[in-house]
Amino acid sequence: MPACRHCQGTYPREYFIHGNGPRKDVCVRCGVDKGLVEESEVPAYYSKDLANARINLRARRYSGFLWVGVLWVIWISYFGNIPLWGMASGIALLLISLVLPVQFILGHAKYQAKLAHLTPSYERPKGH
Ligand SMILES: [Zn+2]
């Protein structure tokens, strides 16, 4: 994988702008930042909105595990000792903990489809 000469990042070939001279070995993001190309010229560019939407999607997918972890810490700290309420909330939390990984696995295809929808389509030109 080639490295960008401005940010030293290594990306697949489709994330580089085309041309020689100052445009040689410059990634799409650095090309747009330094004014070498317009945003509309580079289909592989992840705009701010697109990047935010992707992070949002990813956060929504993985946040369940964070919340279950937080709820377990709260349950162990405060509710574990209460006889009836502690038992009921513990069972509910246990059920959530068991359902969450199943839901995570079953939602994989939907997540991949949404992520593909948020990925700019780009065909690698001939010779690259
Ligand atoms: Zn770069």
Give an overview in words.
The N and C termini lie close together (12 Å). The protein is elongated and about 75 Å long. The chain has helices spanning 28-33, 48-79, 83-106, 108-117. It has 2 domains: 1-45, no CATH class; 48-117. With 128 residues, the chain is mostly helical. The chain has 4 helices and no strands. α2 runs antiparallel to α3 (83-106). It binds zinc ion. Zinc ion binds at residues 4, 6-7, 9, 27, 29-30.
Number of helices: 4
Kindly report how far apart the N and C termini lie. Answer: 12 Å
Uncertain segments are none
Strand content: under 5%
Structural class: mainly alpha
Gyration radius (Cα, Å) is 23 Å
Q: What is the share of helical residues?
A: 55-70%
- What is the typical, i.e. mean, pLDDT? 90
Overall structural domain count: 2
Oligomeric state, counting identical vs distinct chains: single chain
Number of strands: 0
Strand count, sense and barrel status of the largest sheet are: none
Tags for this model:
single chain; elongated; binds zinc ion
Which helices and strands, and how do they pair?
Elements: H1 28-33, H2 48-79, H3 83-106, H4 108-117
The structure holds zinc ion.
Short synopsis of the structure:
Helix content is 56%, strand content 0%. By secondary structure, the protein is mainly α. Zinc ion is lined by residues 4, 6-7, 9, 27, 29-30.
